[in-house]
Amino acid sequence: MNDEQIIDLFWARDEKAILETDRSYGSHCRSVSKRILNSAEDAEECVNDSYLRLWQQLPPEKPNSLGAFLTRIVRNLSIDRLRQLGSVKRGGSAITVSLDELEQVTGRGSVESSILADELGAAVDKFLRTQSQEARSIFLRRYYFFDTRTEIADRYEISVAQVSVVLSRTRKRLRNYLKEEGLL
């Protein structure tokens, strides 16, 4: 079933929408959440909470990409859950390493709240649109989906060293861009 058909089920308030969403996006959502939470049980709970949130938001929302819309919900709920559990302070998951790397760009503590700020988020989005497809994809895999460098290298069939170089250069360009925009 495609996204449009699933969204139509949500709009019709047909409970089959949840089942079809899980069939299409369940494994992806669990993977994103587990990467953040480092716990299959907590990830499963966040995914279920995400389906409820999706049910509540469709309608009135009608997203262009159900997958992207749902991923954002899962990611945000998982980060909220991580904060509740206090795992960020204990260094309990891949998100800690990724956020530490981004803190070097902003030069501020608590990047998890800075990066979610509307102004900074819009600037990062605008910056990423100016980057090559490769740099943008690698950046998003690392800092949005929290993939490891090895996973990114495998996905794009490049070396781990090349992933590190692309990330380092992209962070440096982002830092310069944010300075030019007056956000640093």
Structure description:
The protein is mostly helical. The chain has two domains: 3-89, RNA polymerase sigma factor, region 2, helix turn helix motif (Rna Polymerase Sigma Factor, Chain: A); 93-180, Winged helix-like DNA-binding domain superfamily/Winged helix DNA-binding domain (Arc Repressor Mutant, subunit A, Orthogonal Bundle), CATH 1.10.10.10. The chain is 77% helix and 0% strand. The chain contains eleven helices and no strands. The chain has helices at residues 3-11, 16-37, 40-57, 66-85, 87-90, 94-106, 111-114, 118-129, 133-143, 149-156, 160-180. 24% of the residues are buried.
Mean pLDDT: 86
Unreliable residue stretches: none
Helix content: over 70%
Q: Over the alpha carbons, how many angstroms does the gyration radius reach? A: 17 Å
Helix-strand pattern, N to C?
Answer: HHHHHHHHHHH
CATH topology of the largest domain: Arc Repressor Mutant, subunit A
- What is the approximate shape? globular
Estimate nothing, just give the exact number of structural domains.
2
Distance between the termini: 45 Å
What fraction of the residues are assigned to beta strands by DSSP?
under 5%
Broad structural category: mainly alpha
Can you identify the CATH class of the largest domain? Mainly Alpha
Q: Give the full name of the CATH homologous superfamily of the largest domain.
A: Winged helix-like DNA-binding domain superfamily/Winged helix DNA-binding domain
Please identify, by name, the CATH architecture of the largest domain. Answer: Orthogonal Bundle
